């Protein structure tokens, strides 16, 4: 999944940077580096966190949580 997300991230960065260059002409190299790194890190972080959510759900860790309030918490929220 991460390899696919890396490919999508690199493709998105290349397409958007090409479009920005086409629309605005050449900008500072620092702009391209900062934008590419910022978007790349953000997209990969989102992919990693989403993967952890699916992994946690798929392995049963979500059901293994000790619910100390039990049904008591549900009653409190339904009453409001």
Characterise this structure:
This protein is mostly helical and 80 residues long. The protein has a domain at 2-52. It is built from three helices and no strands. Helix 1 (2-24) runs antiparallel to helix 2. The longest helix is centred in the middle third of the chain and has 30 residues, at 29-58. The chain is elongated.
Question: How would the blueprint of this fold be written?
Answer:
Layout: H1 2-24, H2 29-58, H3 71-79
Helix pairs in contact: 1-2
The main pleated sheet reads as: none
**DSSP strand count:** 0
Number of helices: 3
- Given helix and strand content, the structural type is mainly alpha
Outline, from the CA principal axes? elongated
Helix content: over 70%
Query: Ends: how far apart?
Result: 42 Å
Q: What would the average pLDDT be, to the nearest integer? A: 83
H/E element sequence: HHH
Low-confidence parts: none
| Percent strand | under 5%
Radius of gyration: 21 Å
Concise summary:
By secondary structure, the chain is mainly α. The chain has a domain at about 1-50. The chain is about 80% helix and about 0% strand.
Descriptors:
80 residues; mainly alpha; elongated
């Amino acid at each position: 999944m991460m390899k696919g997300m890396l490919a999508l991230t690199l493709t998105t960065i290349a397409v958007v940077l090409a479009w920005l260059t086409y629309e605005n002409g050449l900008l500072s190299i620092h702009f391209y580096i900062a934008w590419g790194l910022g978007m790349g890190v953000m997209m990969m972080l989102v992919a990693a966190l989403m993967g952890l959510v699916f992994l946690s759900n798929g392995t049963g860790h979500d059901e293994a949580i000790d619910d100390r309030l039990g049904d008591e918490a549900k009653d409190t929220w339904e009453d409001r």
